[in-house]
């Protein structure tokens, strides 16, 4: 049976980040974008990284251009944007797909462990639901990543314990991480 530690993610420098190197750590895997309404999520992600990294938190940032072309730049331009605007220090991977036949195997695994459970409530959740329903009336029935800044949380034993949609309160993500640290 597969484990999170069987996967790797392509890095900007051409290497591979092996998740087995993160055994015993709490991991947040997030697909990101530089031109999205959720791009400000970089700020609380970086704050969480700074707060918990020394206690065992790792964040894996996978830029993705599959959602309305909101990550148009090169890997270097994306890194520069994040460094300059959000002072991100967590590792940023090579821009990759998270859905479809070219999706990173890691994301196929994550989706198999934590499927889509809804956007929650509130104006952003309603807007996301309406937008996706216009694209695919059955979007709720598949585990695909729905938009930028979907976050998966992995505990110290390698279990994918939570999935936070982009509309989820970032405080709830931090509370989950703090519980696992």
Automatic annotation (TrEMBL):
Keyword Cell inner membrane: no
Entry keyword set: Oxidoreductase, Peroxidase
InterPro entries: Glutathione_peroxidase, GPX_AS, Thioredoxin-like_sf
GO MF annotations, alphabetized: peroxidase activity
Active site positions, chain numbering: 36
Example of a GO biological process term: cellular response to oxidative stress
Top-rank lineage group of the source organism: Bacteria
Residue stretches spanning the membrane: none
Gene3D superfamilies: Glutaredoxin (3.40.30.10)
Keyword Oxidoreductase: yes
Family, similarity comment: Belongs to the glutathione peroxidase family.
Name this protein carries in UniProt: Glutathione peroxidase
Organism expressing this protein natively: Denitrobacterium detoxificans
Upper lineage: Bacteria, Bacillati, Actinomycetota, Coriobacteriia, Eggerthellales
């Amino acid at each position: 049976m597969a484990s999170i530690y069987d996967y790797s993610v392509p890095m900007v420098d051409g290497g591979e980040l092996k998740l087995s190197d993160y055994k015993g750590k709490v991991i947040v895997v997030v697909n990101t974008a530089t031109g999205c309404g959720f791009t400000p999520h970089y700020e609380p992600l970086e704050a969480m990284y700074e707060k918990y990294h020394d206690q065992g938190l790792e964040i894996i940032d996978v830029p993705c251009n599959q959602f309305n072309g909101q990550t148009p730049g090169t890997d270097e331009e994306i890194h520069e944007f994040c460094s300059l605007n959000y002072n991100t220090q967590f590792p940023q991977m090579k821009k990759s797909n998270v859905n479809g036949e070219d999706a990173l195997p890691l994301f196929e695994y994550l989706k198999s462990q934590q499927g889509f459970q809804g956007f929650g409530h509130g104006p952003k959740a309603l807007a996301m639901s309406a937008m996706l329903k216009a694209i695919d009336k059955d979007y709720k029935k598949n585990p695909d990543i729905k938009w930028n800044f979907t976050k998966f949380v992995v505990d110290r034993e390698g279990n994918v314990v939570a999935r936070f949609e982009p509309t989820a309160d970032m405080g709830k993500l931090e509370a989950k991480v703090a519980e696992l640290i």
